[in-house]
């Protein structure tokens, strides 16, 4: 399997990052990953098909929001918090605060926890 490509810090664009954050599922994934932990793709729960979830994860990675690591047949993802802060200071915190205030992406969670009612 081919290794994932990640944009360098200088190649991350504001419009690319904002475009990636234009979907509630992707905002929910960012909210979930904001705890700083690396997560296996199988740990993630979203109200979409696995192929659609994979698409959302690729969009986040291609924009530079996340880093994907492959280990055998498993894939792991983490938020590039430090890189985002360096490139766009304050943007991630503003997005996370607004998403929490408006409850954007709350339908995304971990597979071992029940979905919100």
From TrEMBL:
Keywords: DNA-binding, Transcription, Transcription regulation. The keyword Cell cycle does not apply. The keyword Transcription regulation applies. It holds the Pfam family HTH_20. Residues 6-103 form the HTH arsR-type domain. SMART domains: HTH_ARSR (SM00418). InterPro entries: ArsR-like_HTH, HTH_ArsR_DNA-bd_dom, HTH_MetalResp_TranReg, WH-like_DNA-bd_sf, WH_DNA-bd_sf. CDD domains: HTH_ARSR (cd00090). It comes from the Bacteria. PROSITE patterns: HTH_ARSR_2. Gene3D superfamilies: Winged helix-like DNA-binding domain superfamily/Winged helix DNA-binding domain. This is Helix-turn-helix domain-containing protein. It comes from Actinocorallia libanotica.
